Structure formats: C-alpha cells, structure tokens
Amino acid sequence: MYPELFTLTLPVLGEVTITSFGVMMALAFLSGYALLRQETVRLGAGRDLAADMLLGALIGGIVGAKIYYVLLYWDRTAADPLGMIFSRSGLVWYGGFIGGCIGVLWVLRRRPVATGLGVDAIAPALALAYGIGRIGCFLVGDDYGRPTESWVGIAFPNGLPPTTAGNLRGFGADVDPSIPDSQVLAVHPTQLYETGLSLIIFFLLWRLRRHPHVQGWLFGMWLAMAAVERFVIEIFRAKDDRFFGGITLAQVISVLLFAGGIALVLRLRRRAGEAAV
Questions:
Q1: 3-state secondary structure the chain
Q2: Among residues 203, 170, 173, which one has the least CA distance to residue 187?
Q3: Closest CA to 137 of 145, 149, 146
Q4: Contacts of 141 (CB under 8 A, 6+ apart)
Q5: Which of 179, 174, 192 is nearest to 1 (CA)?
Q6: Is the model's pTM score more than 0.85?
Q7: Separation of alpha carbons 104 and 53, rounded Å
Q8: For 246-257, what is each residue's pLDDT tens digit?
Q9: Among candidate residues 29, 24, 26, the one with its CA nearest the CA of residue 2
Q10: Do the Cβ atoms of 194 and 144 come closer than 8 Å?
Q11: 107, 146, 93, 112: which is closest to 44 by C-alpha?
Q12: What is the mean pLDDT of residues 160-181?
C-alpha cells in the first residue's frame, strides 16, 4: 500500500501531499482522454470535442460523486456537508457517473454533434479509465471486500479504514465472534477484481467499435456490461449500505442501468431494422 507518494512544498499553498489515489485518478482521466480524442477524430468530430467532453466529465463527475456521498452517508456528513464536499475524500462511482453524464450531455447539446456519436466515442474510454481508477482504491486500501481465507486474500492494516475484524463487523461482514476486533484480516481485493473485469469490457468495446451499428449502440453495450460487473462485485464488497434484503444501493442502480442499456440496444437495433426495410 502506498497511500501517500511524496510531499511538495509550493509557494502560497504550502505543503501538498501527492496521493496514489490522486495520481491514479489523473492517469484514469488522461488515458480516457487519449482514447476519446482518438475516437472523436476517427468518427470525424475532431479533437476539440474530446477536450470539451473531458472537462464536462471531470467537473460533473467530481461534483456528482461528492453529492452522492454526502446524501448516502448523511448521518456522517450532516454536521459539515460543505467540508466533506471540499475534502479530498468521499468519491462514489455512481454519483460520479451520473454527474459526469450530465456534464457530457450538456457539452454535446451545445455542439453540432450527434449525441449517439459522442457517447459511443466515450464508451471504451470509460471502461479503461474506471479500471485504472480502481488501482488507486487498491493502493490506499479503500473499497475492499469481505473477509476471505483463500489465496487471493489481501490484508489492509493501514486501509481506509483498516481491515480489522471490528471494522468489518461494522460493515456487516460475517466474522467469527472469537476473533478480537483489533485483529487484521485478509479480504477480497475487489478493487483488483474490478480492474480486471473493466479491462475485459474495454477490450470487448474496442473490438466492437468498428462494427457497423447505430449511433448509441456501443454506449448501451457498455452500460449493460458495466452494470453486470458492478452488481457481481457488490456481492463480495464489505459495505454497510445493504438494504432490500441484503441488496446494496449500488446493485439496485446496477439493475436499473442494465435494463436501460439493454432497452437502448434493442431500441436502436429495431430502429435500424425499420430503416433498412
């Protein structure tokens, strides 16, 4: 684990700590931008569109992730919601996705570019960026899974929070009552699971992007595959937001996004069939 890489002393700002999570987030956005720019050029929309979409995704994503976190953990953030919003922690993927979508759609609405073309261009970039970003979660010991005794298990003694028996019990994980709260346990490295699955999704989308399809179809495919990936990962996650009979809020959202993605794909295929008649 390398939560903090180094500290810089800058004029006016003073000491600034560079975290591994921040570096991986930056790499995620930059790699996504490189792919997005390549796709917008290939599709004839130009490089400027990619930069505008990146800015919309960056601003909308961070704001959405923060707002989602504040609302989801209101009991912890109610005392100082603004402080949490402007802190360096508390970023939730689905909040970032919703906010990022709003930002990107706002950009596309203001440009003479078909929305379907824009979202198809960004689909592979989203899969790659998400996988890279999860490496940052692994390096800081966040978003890990339930306890496991298998060979894949990894302990996070300095995680956020550490994988102690007490913390895992607080997340609702099934821990042997005889284990003291202070004992550090190995858990499923769900961050790496997500990285691996997201890279598989990326390679599939990268192969499919040249397949003749109606604009918007590729984004619908990403939406469905990403929703399945997240639903499965949530089974292994150590989380305290399990509602609806043990189902997490993220799984509920995943089901809705999967249904939306499949509906979009089927609708576009039907529209293409009608146009061909």
A1: CCCEEEEEEECCCEEEEEEHHHHHHHHHHHHHHHHHHHHHHHCCCCHHHHHHHHHHHHHHHHHHHHHHHHHHCHHHHCCCHHHHHCCCCCCCHHHHHHHHHHHHHHHHHCCCCCHHHHHHHHHHHHHHHHHHHHHHHHHHCCCCECECCCCCCEECCCCCCCCEHHHHHHCCCCCCCCCCCCCECEECCHHHHHHHHHHHHHHHHHHHCCCCCCCCHHHHHHHHHHHHHHHHHHHHECCCCEECCCEEHHHHHHHHHHHHHHHHHHHHHHHHHHHHC
A2: 173
A3: 145
A4: 1, 3, 156, 158, 159, 160, 162, 163
A5: 192
A6: yes
A7: 5
A8: 888 889 999 999
A9: 24
A10: no
A11: 112
A12: 92
Furthest-apart CA pair in the chain: how many Å?
69
Which residue is associated with the tokens 């402007």?
86
Backbone angles phi, psi at 171, to 5 degrees: -85, 0
Position 232, amino acid: V
Cis upstream peptide for 112 (omega within 30°): no
Task: Tell me the backbone φ, ψ of residue 115, rounded to 5 degrees.
Answer: -60, -40
**Cα(164)–Cα(185) distance, integer angstroms:** 6
- 248: β partners: 242
Residue 88 pLDDT > 60, yes or no? no
pLDDT for 65 beyond 90: no
Distance CA 221, CA 201 (A): 10
Residue 68 to residue 46: CA distance in whole angstroms: 33
Structure tokens of 117?
């073309």
Report residue 29: phi and psi, to 5°.
-65, -40
Report the DSSP beta bridge partners of residue 154: 187
Residue with tokens 């609702």: 172
More confident residue, 78 or 258: 258
